[in-house]
Amino acid sequence: MQSADDIDVTMSLRSLIGGIPENLQIKLNGRDVRITLERRGPENGDLWVLLPALSTVSTRGEWHQFADAMDEQCQLVSFDWPGFGDSERPAIAYDANALLQVLPAILQHLDRGDQAKINVVAAGHSAPIALGLAEQCSRQWAQIVVVAPTFRGPLPTMTGRSGQSFNWVRRLVRLPLVGPLLYRLNTSRPILKLMLRRHVWVNRDLLTPQRLREQQNISRQPGARFASVAFVSGGLDAASDSRWWLKQTQKLHCPLHVVLANEAPPRSKQEMLTLADKADRVSGIDGRLGLHQEFGRLLAETVSAS
């Protein structure tokens, strides 16, 4: 874990889950990177840390509906992963090992010194990041809830190939001129609409022109292409097959709750079911990979139920 000297706290203004945002400077692969974090609720309430799904349109705002539905006596914390949302988006090599440095630093920053345990809720591709810290951090956790968990990016999932097979894609998108052009084409509204309709949301009424503009604005922030292409091409994958995260469940020192996305794409659904076999608790919601955003209220009721 990092020392307090490695983290500098400054205030920001943009609230996405109805809380108070702040910026942290975190050492990431030898470089200071600004991470935007947001807290909502009383400081002495049960602590819930909400990890957004990694995607081209990843942002902590995905948890707004969930946050509105949770008990007001809880303290909810979410943040934008480096390279996504309101966090800094430097042109660095993004991989799972880099993201594994972020969560322990944030948990250290949130340490209230009262030994109270943390509820960790990880959506989508953030689930293997959290599970990757099973041995290191889970003694601090009351539980870990993984929501529609995935361990492979879209290209490895579609092709059955490892993320390393797509190093050339990441190199191409990192190039000046060519990279921004290719990324712009792949974040056009028709492409985003297709992705959201087929894999993320069930309710097509959510795909309004205004909502699509919002999603496109998220995807096209300066520097967003570097982390986004890493996710899509499998550069953020912690492993190439599900045996890895099954082993990680054996290292947990807290209960594991798997929330299945009943309408997820077949390959992703099968991996969720494989992980569910190792869970202490399994629930199902009739959503896709973005169910934590679309069905936030139902998810809040599900995870807070005894």
What does the model show?
There is one protein chain. This protein is α/β, with parallel strands linked by helices and 306 residues long. The chain has a domain of 214 residues: Alpha/Beta hydrolase fold, catalytic domain (Rossmann fold). 38% of the residues lie in helices and 19% in strands. The protein is built from 15 helices and 9 strands. It has a 9-stranded mixed beta sheet, with helices on both faces. The N terminus is likely disordered.
What tags apply to this protein structure?
alpha/beta, Rossmann fold, nine-stranded mixed β-sheet, 15 helices
Radius of gyration: 18 Å
Low-confidence stretches: 1-12
The count of β-strands is: 9
CATH architecture of the domain at 4-152 and 240-304: 3-Layer(aba) Sandwich
The end-to-end span amounts to 32 Å
CATH-defined fold name of the domain at 4-152 and 240-304? Rossmann fold
> Strand arrangement, largest sheet?
1-2-3-5-4-6-7-8-9
By oligomeric state, this entry counts as single chain
The shape is: globular
Q: What series of H and E elements makes up the topology?
A: EEEEHEHHEHHEHHHHHHHEHEHH
Q: How many individual helices?
A: 15
| Category from helices, strands and their pairing | alpha/beta
- The proportion of residues in beta strands is 15-25%
- Specify the helix fraction band: 25-40%
